[in-house]
Amino acid sequence: MKKILYMIPVLLLLVVGMYFHNKAGIKDEEVISLSEDILNDYEDIIIKHGNNEEKLIALTFDDGPHKDFTPQILGVLKENDVKATFFVVGEMVDWNSEIVKREYNEGHEIGNHTFTHINVEKRSYSEINKEINQTQEAVKKVIGKEPNLFRPPYRAISKNMCTIAKDKNMNIILWSNLDPRDWSNPGVNYIVETIVNKVQNGTIILLHDYNNSKNSTTQTIQALKIVIPKLKEQGYKFVTISELMNHMDKDKQTQNKK
Ligand SMILES: [Zn+2]
Q1: pTM for the whole thing?
Q2: Among the options 117, 179, 208, 209, which is catalytic?
Q3: 108 and 86 in contact (C-beta within 8 Å)?
């Protein structure tokens, strides 16, 4: 009985600690439940994975460009000759435009992740439209063209967002149940293991080139150095989202090429 009594304050501390740990993240990608109806209505433009016949997978990085972390990620990708997709936050594109230029010049794809990382479930049509447009313009200013991929922050889905994306001939890119929650710094091994254990043909992997960490190198960057060679050994090829889509069924290909 005494042992149990000792355990109570320890457990309490743990719970409180975890609560504040999560609170500390200003851009926590908490998964918000998807509205299945909306997903079904717009399934022609929503992508969650590539085809399962080929060993193609896509690394995606959200919430950048970040002046410290993104160049390191670009370095790891370059060393391993891997192409990825960056879903950028528009206001950060304005602050770090050189990094976006580098992403593009090194063969990576740029997608839209709103201008100020909004939750589209809580915003009006005009607010979402403005956020997407501002980011399209910010990217165009740097690389000369607008993205045709959109990823909603927090995995939030709304009908307005889908309508806007469809009107702009953009695809909405989610991910394949492969979210190692790297932004929460769960440990390098956890990130590596989650990816290696869950990866399949056509998987879209969600990672971040933004982190609240004060360290100069994030767990994401350390994990990438391990996980990329591992998956290559297993025969996987890393491609951009557009390339992944080029290997998919006709409907989505058409949407992508419009
Ligand atoms: Zn995000």
Answers
A1: 0.84
A2: 208
A3: yes
